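Chapter summary example.
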Amino acid sequence: MQDGRQCFRELTIGENLRAASFAHANGAADRLEMVFSYFPFLKDMTGRPAGVLSGGQLQMLVVGMAIMCNPKLMLLDEPSLGLSPVMVQSVFDVIERLHRDIGLTVVIAEQTVPRLLKIASDVFVLARAVS
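The structure predicted for these 131 residues follows.
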């Protein structure tokens, strides 16, 4: 089953984060520390295989992997899909902090509109025309 949370499940968390930094190696050590500051559990579990993570933990890992690429823009498609309310809150808290702390532009396609309204600077609603 593909859940959209793409990482190397057989590699450790640390190996996944290092692999993601190959796209932009300069400053990778600083970005790794930033990832660990946003997601402390990743540091605590750095030697564990990514394949043993829960859906919410995987979501945090792939957001961390994106950070390792030093993006200017992050596009997230349904980041809350299949996550517990606690995990959803954690993921959205980090997304909001990334925008506030480093000025990262984040575009989110999400069905959980009330949560987005709390953090978004701009919201666009797409609806299918019914004939």
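To summarize the output: The chain has a mean pLDDT of 87.
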